[in-house]
Write a structure and sequence with these properties.
It is built from 7 helices and no strands. It is mainly α and 153 residues long. It starts with a helix and ends in a 7-residue tail after the last helix. The relative contact order is 0.07.
């Protein structure tokens, strides 16, 4: 049976550190030392900070809509594959495929009814195209055309 004192005498786990107490942290790793040497990187300012509040309020709705569309276009252009969705944490992505297929067609239907551009719906289409087998998509498209599709769109 080992004695606890034997484990303490084994030596440091991390080179240069003999214990995990804050006083044992080398000065090069502390924030104060980093500030003195000029290697400290300040934290990013939070969204609710005081600087720049007036500029966000001065942007009118047309500019904010344009910025949103540019943001959507940027995301679509940088799209590689379906990102992680916390609603579907398991390896089986069948339900994720189904949900995005339905969301795409619901989005398209609602935006077409409003007479608005359907570009934001392309995100759902890309996700379901990357997750779903082509045979499923073809089957669901045929069912929608026949009026026998089981989902609510």
């Amino acid at each position: 049976m080992r004695d606890r004192d034997q484990d303490r005498d084994r030596g440091p786990v991390v080179p240069g550190m003999t214990s995990l107490r804050p006083s044992a942290i080398p000065a090069s790793r502390s924030c104060t030392a980093a500030r003195e040497h000029g290697t400290h990187e300040p934290r990013a300012r939070a969204r609710g900070s005081r600087k720049g509040r007036g500029s966000a309020r001065s942007i009118d709705q047309a500019d904010s809509a344009r910025l949103k569309m540019e943001d959507i276009q940027t995301k679509l252009n940088n799209y590689r594959t379906a990102p992680f969705d916390a609603r579907f944490p398991n390896a089986n992505q069948t339900r994720n495929c189904w949900s995005n297929y339905l969301d795409y067609h619901r989005c398209q239907k609602s935006l077409n009814a409003k007479g608005v551009d359907v570009t934001p719906c392309d995100w759902y289409r890309r996700v379901y195209k990357s997750l779903c087998p082509m045979s499923w998509i073809q089957k669901w498209d045929d069912q929608r055309a026949d009026g026998t599709f089981p989902g609510k769109i």
